[in-house]
Amino acid sequence: MTTTLDYLTVDTAPAPQHSIIWLHGLGADGGDFLPLAEQMTLPVAVRYIFPHAPEQAVTINGGYVMRSWYDIVSDNIEQRADVAGIRQSQLAIEQLITQEKQRGVAAKHIFLAGFSQGGAVVLHTGLRQQEALGGIIALSTYLPMPSFLADEYSATAAAQTPILMAHGRQDPIVPYALGKQSKEKLQEINCALEWHEYAMPHSVCPAEIADIEHWLTQQLRK
After folding, report:
1. Active-site residue among 19, 116, 140, 182?
2. What CATH code would you report for 7-220?
3. Which of 31, 65, 98, 218 is 20 to 30 Å from 107 by CA-CA measure?
4. 0.85 exceeded by the pTM?
5. Can you name the residues that pair with 21 across neighbouring β-strands?
6. Residue 96 and residue 72 in contact, taking contact as beta carbons nearer than 8 Å
7. For residues 219 and 212, what is the distance between their CA atoms, to the nearest angstrom?
8. Percent of the chain residues past pLDDT 90, beyond the cut
9. What angle separates helix 117-126 from helix 83-102, to the nearest 10 degrees?
């Protein structure tokens, strides 16, 4: 299957039966989280897929063209979701999920991970799958389009898909309070969610990497 996204891929050993699709944040590219993956030691062979977001004009940055999973149209983070753009990114990520299934990787062994804008896309996409995934890792992010969730999410699959959310308490980009509010919304719909917070800004810290490795190890052993 040909996907609409270019991506980097790294197999930690031959013929992996687990895949992690990892989305970068605004203005970065697929290589952004490659070093983090290289730091982690996991108990099984994994195929990492690091897609590059398409280049597009971003309204909040004066129309500057950069890699972005969706347009950001307002300073108010709760009003700035580009619904059409998020849905388009959802379809592109679902192509990657389908590709991994065609390679023989079961849905329950496919993980979605993302930072900031990428994290918003993996939360949106993962909750709308008809089959439970291996898990969702959402870092320094928020749940986009919460008013659409009740009509669109797959209740059974979402409840069976474990979620790890992590956020910095000094985040000036995606406010800590919004991340925590998103966590509480997901718990209300019975998501199996683990929450971690750190004394950091909009970034990733060593303690967080260790927690991601521990959480992934638990899920990969199931």
Report:
1. 116
2. 3.40.50.1820
3. 31
4. yes
5. 49, 112
6. no
7. 11
8. 87
9. 70
Cα 114 to Cα 20: distance, rounded to the nearest angstrom? 10
d(Cα 53, Cα 70) in Å, to the nearest integer?
A: 9
Nearest CA to 165 among 130, 205, 217, 120? 120
Q: What are the extents of the domains in the chain?
A: 7-220
Q: How many residues does the chain have?
A: 222
Residue 80: pLDDT band (50, 70, 90) is low
Both tokens of 60, joined, read 């909040």
pLDDT of residue 58: 93
Tokens of 128: 């709308």
CB neighbour list of residue 2: distance below 8 Å, 6 or more residues apart: none
Question: Three-class SS string for the chain?
Answer: CCCCCCEEEEECCCCCCCEEEEECCCCCCHHHHHHHHHHCCCCCCCEEEEECCCEEEEHHHCCEEEECCCCECCCCHHHCECHHHHHHHHHHHHHHHHHHHHCCCCHHHEEEEEECHHHHHHHHHHCCCCCCCCEEEEECCCCCCHHHHHHHCCHHHHHCCCEEEEEECCCCCCCHHHHHHHHHHHHHCCCCEEEEEECCCCCCCHHHHHHHHHHHHHHHCC
Query: Any catalytic annotation for residue 116?
Result: yes
| CA 138/CA 116 separation, integer angstroms | 8
